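Reopening: Lipid-A-disaccharide synthase still failing for me.
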Amino acid sequence: MKYYLIVGEASGDLHASHLMAALKVEDPQAEFRFFGGDLMAAVGGTLVKHYKELAYMGFIPVLLHLRTIFANMRRCKEDIVSWNPDVVILVDYPGFNLDIAKFVHAKTQIPVYYYISPKIWAWKEYRIKNIKRDVDELFSILPFEVEFFEGKHHYPIHYVGNPTVDEVTAYQEAHPKNTAEFIADNQLENKPIIALLAGSRKQEIKDNLPDMLKAASAFPDYQLVLAGAPSIAPEYYEQHIGESKVKIIFGQTYRLMQHADAALVTSGTATLEAALFRIPQVVCYHTPIGKVISFLRRHILTVKFISLVNLIADREVVKELVADTMTVKNMQSELEKILEDDKCRSEMLAEYERMAERLGPAGAPRHAARKMLELLKK
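Support: Ran it again with your exact input. Result attached.
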């Protein structure tokens, strides 16, 4: 069969590449054409447009590149019609992909499948109307989305497991834990490690890292190790480190997680990854005008939590310090609990196990591929 996939960022490229590999196993005759990235290209098929030509973040960049964005949408729509695939598979990236879904539904007979559903439970819930109208099958990687889509909105979906489970499991199987080797390879001290995961964007790093360093530096029996984002130059980190004693390592985030005793983590997939590596953590996310954001969060946002760990568990497993609650004093207090209070650590680790049970075992891309083939053959 012919599969047309569309992603708009690095994480989508990663998840789509695994899905494509699984589809090739289930369908040896699979042909791929895609708006995607290098990882998808490595699996095989035709890369029509790289996601780096699509990804504009923030109001001003989007406004400045409207002509390019519309040209890319037009090119994508024309290419889908010309190639006439058996299915269009959209991966996250709802701003672009929901427009494509609308076009494909209205102008063709090609089914639209959505892998990694848009997070409309957090914001823009009105998009459920577009999804019901334009998406034939929705594949979820978060178990609580089943109740949201099916229970609240009466729209059936397929929960296939979470690909982060696959990625962490595969890493652990391929890399047995050897802390002494990790310390030697990176010229670290012979001390337990506090990992700092300060985000992958410059603004996140600027806003979060200085206070994270101040808080973690209060524990001299531990060494601080910062996971460097691949898109950020070392010089940028140096601007925000100041006099703090911290080691930056690039390209080893999972390896760092494997050997860390605790972590300060900005919100995002990293919170889930840390939980799957069984690292006690504190979630920290600074925002400007913190009191205003805290008010909006309490009174307008439709979700109780910002971290995937707590959303999946449906309870506060890890402490979330967001907006005006993200202070050096609060971070130090929470770090002290997970470093020095055995009861607090063991309770968090036990909750991680329950969360992992909710996610289910590894195999999300394989489960999704098999379900897609089953539906297409009908």
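The first strand starts at residue 2 and ends at 6. If you still see a failure, please send the error message rather than a screenshot.
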